UniProtKB/TrEMBL annotation:
UniProt source species: Catenovulum adriaticum
Protein name: Heparinase II/III family protein
Gene3D superfamilies xref list: 2.70.98.70, Chondroitin AC/alginate lyase
Signal sequence residues: 1-29
InterPro entries for this protein: Alginate_lyase_dom, Chondroitin_lyas, Hepar_II_III_C
Domain Heparinase II/III-like C-terminal: 394-660
Subcellular locations according to the entry: Periplasm
Length: 748
């Protein structure tokens, strides 16, 4: 830790400048106490250092993004200072009154502490002091929270996770104002609340503190940062290496196990952004206090990769909503705002500024100042979104989350395949699940989490019961389900033991492709999915081609679900709509929550079955599927067995075959046309796909697409990625120059 030896008197409350900043000399690092007591630890010493503060004091005098953010924050906090302090006895679960008051208190203290450092106006420090003195009275009187969650109990909040988040913010506020406090006030606050909360999160909650999980990350961050501020190196070591300091728990083990080598977090993008905050915040504190640890270089810069990967795992500003994800969360979330600022402060990568500009939030930190200054100078360059297989697991070999992008822009066509590990308790049972996005909109949808976060009337803001009974179940996703039973029989413990294998990943100019497989989702059944995003040259057309194969030695019912967003337009086959009476699609494993709204036995005289819908983005989408083995098509809508109306009324097509040991679903999703109700025109509402087929030739898989105008395209790929593989098709010899190639055939 940085130590200093000083013993000066420090005068505050001097005349303020036009920005509200006290006109003081930056010679002193905020380390001087009002009672002239000597302090060993330099403050602030966490995310901000005194050097950062000096630069921020100068920056708020000049017009620009940073000054604007400062003035807005100051106006808000000044209005708060006129209101009475409120530190209520805890009684509510997440979203309830007392819960939200305590959340708001740590945010207000955090902001007031920052304003004190910049302005040195004692009113901000006095506010933090007054609130903390109230908490010092309250906290010793608390036992278990009345709405306690048994898995991770709290006292101030319903779960210890929130207690850790409170301390992460509160210790930074204390760090900012400790130089203004008397020795007596410091002792009261530290002994009354800061130390007790830190001990509650560590010594008294070993099951969470030593856990490799985002709850453990927040706890170790809170305790470690408190250790730096209160000059308790022992707490820092325990935060880094576990309560026994052996490395079997703690922050470093979490860095080792929760991120893959390319920075993918095993619970998925939603929880990656949430866990990112304690990771980068504690890392920044470690860097400022113990730069010799080189924390941002650890594991080949894994934290910097994690920040970048969090941004990559988004589309049009929103995170890919796999697992327990709330779909409205995106890159403007405060966790990634902090991450991008810290990453830019270290790397100066101008592409990160593009994300920061989209976030449109300026942090009052040293790194936030760097971002603001760079944006004021227009230094940002376009952030490059990439086609990438984000390996899962500590060594990156537990499958992958695969993102196929037609180009590098934020609104490009994107297909994702979830070939990841389970994702711990927040994981959903959708191995090899598919999603598709186009022109800024989700087309093939993932349900995400069944939850109304912080809405008390909806199950106290918790995950709804339907999260277990529907959202996590396989039928709620775009994947294959055998015998109406979820993958791993819906048992998380079993799911955590297995993961798919990525057999092929190819990224060419015209075709982005992934093949993945798993033989443990069901006993005795092997599942394999190949998904390709195909760009037709000179046509500005993107196709999603999907081949899903199920193999077994015994007959099964196979369902392949496609959940979609939009308005059904038409099909090329007759169906029976259930208009007078509805019944659920099944009785368990999520099927009980789907109304069967229509059904059809496809006509075997037709080579393909086609379903068309219109999305709110004004484009038409047609799903074409090869007809074979008595294919059935079921129309479904969520909402059955849902007396509290908790579920969204999402829609799906379910392709079904019965009594088959082996079946291969071959499908193509085409985006086409335009519907403009304002200008009253419709273009190309009909699909251009005439036929679709699949063959195997000389060890090469062939997908043949025929258009209405007679043009034909051939997509050829090989699992083994052999170079210069040749194959014969329709009397001609073709050569594969890469793992996958697109060939344009002569018109018939």
């Amino acid at each position: 830790m940085k130590l200093i030896n000083v013993n000066h008197a420090f005068v505050v409350g001097l005349a303020l400048s036009s920005t509200g900043m006290a006109m003081i000399s930056p010679t002193y690092a905020g380390e001087i106490l009002s009672d002239s007591t000597k302090v060993q630890v330099e403050h602030p010493n966490l995310v901000n250092t005194f050097n950062d503060v000096v630069k921020m004091r100068e920056a708020v005098k000049k017009s620009g993004r940073f000054q604007a953010a400062f003035l807005a924050k100051q106006a808000h906090i000044d209005s708060v200072l006129t209101q009475p302090i409120n530190v209520p006895v805890p009684k509510d679960a997440g979203g309830g009154y007392t819960h939200e008051v305590h959340k708001n208190n740590y945010r207000l203290m955090f902001d007031a502490g920052t304003l004190f450092q910049i302005t040195q106006d004692p009113k901000y420090a006095n506010f933090v002091k007054s609130v903390l003195l109230e908490y010092a009275k309250l906290y010793p009187t608390l036992g278990a929270h009345p709405e306690v969650k048994s898995s991770n109990p709290g006292q101030l909040f319903w779960q210890g996770l929130n207690e850790a988040v409170w301390l992460v913010h509160t210790i930074q506020a204390y760090d900012a104002v400790v130089s203004h406090l008397s020795k007596a006030d410091r002792k009261t606050i530290e002994k009354g609340v800061l130390e007790p909360v830190a001990l509650f999160l560590s010594e008294q909650s070993p099951q969470t503190f030593n856990k490799v999980h985002n709850h453990g990350t927040w706890a170790t961050c809170a305790v470690g940062m408190t250790g730096y501020v209160l000059d308790k190196p022992e707490w820092v070591e325990k935060a880094l290496y576990g309560l026994d300091k052996s490395g079997t728990g703690g922050f470093m083990r979490q860095l080792d196990e929760l991120f893959s080598p390319n920075g993918y977090y095993n619970e998925g993008p939603y929880y990656q952004r949430y866990a990112l905050m304690p990771f980068v915040t504690f890392a920044k504190a470690i860097e400022n206090n113990q730069p010799e640890r080189k924390i941002f270089e650890y594991r080949d810069n894994v934290l910097l990769k994690a920040i970048n990967t969090t941004a990559q795992l988004s589309y049009n500003g929103l995170f890919f909503p796999i697992n327990d994800a709330i779909k409205s969360k995106g890159i403007d979330t405060i966790e990634l705002v902090n991450g991008i600022a810290i990453a830019y402060g270290i790397t100066s990568e101008t592409g990160l500024l593009d994300i920061a500009k989209q976030q449109n939030r300026v942090l009052l930190t040293g790194d936030g100042l760097k971002v603001a200054n760079a944006l004021d100078k227009g230094l940002q360059t376009d952030y490059q979104f990439k086609t990438q297989a984000f390996g899962d697991g500590a060594t990156g070999d537990n499958g992958a989350f695969v993102v196929l992008r037609s180009d590098s822009s934020k609104n490009a066509s994107v297909a994702t395949v979830k070939a990841t590990s389970q994702g711990l308790g927040h994981g959903h049972f959708d191995k090899l699940g598919l999603s598709y996005y186009d022109q800024g909109t989700e087309i093939l949808t993932d349900y995400g989490a069944a939850r109304f976060l912080n809405v008390v009337a909806k199950f106290g803001g918790r995950y709804l019961p339907e999260n277990d009974s529907y959202a996590q179940q396989s039928i709620a996703h775009n994947t294959l389900i055998a015998d109406e039973t979820s993958h791993f029989n819906g048992v998380t413990k079993v799911g955590n033991q297995h993961h798919p294998k990525v057999d092929l990943f190819a990224n060419t100019d015209q075709v982005k492709l992934v093949s993945a497989s798993i033989d443990t989702a069901y006993q005795g059944i092997q599942l394999a999915r190949t998904t390709a995003l195909v760009s037709i040259p000179d046509e500005n057309i993107d196709w999603v081609i999907d081949v899903f194969n199920a193999q077994s030695s015994t007959p099964h019912q196979y369902d392949l679900a496609f959940h979609y967003d939009g308005h059904f337009i038409e099909s090329n086959f007759k169906y029976q709509a259930h208009t007078e009476q509805l019944k659920p699609l099944g009785t368990a494993n999520g099927y009980q929550h789907l109304w069967l709204t229509a059904s059809a036995q496809t006509e075997q005289s037709q080579a393909i079955s086609q379903l068309t819908w219109l999305n709110d983005n004004g484009r038409f989408y047609t799903l074409s599927t090869v007809n074979d083995n008595n294919l059935n098509v079921l129309f479904a809508r969520a909402g059955a067995n849902d007396p509290n109306f908790n579920l969204r009324e999402d829609k799906a097509f379910v392709l079904r075959v019965k009594d088959q040991a082996q079946h291969q679903f071959v499908s193509l999703l085409e985006a086409h046309g335009e519907y403009n109700p304002a200008k009253e025109y419709t273009l190309k509402s009909k699909t251009s796909i005439q036929n679709l087929s699949f063959e195997r030739k000389d060890g090469v898989s062939l997908i043949i697409v025929e258009l209405n105008d007679g043009r034909q395209y051939l997509i050829a790929y090989q699992q083994q990625n052999k170079q210069a593989q040749t194959f014969d098709f329709d009397g001609k010899t073709y050569k594969l120059k890469e793992a996958v190639n697109l060939f344009t055939l002569t018109k018939k």
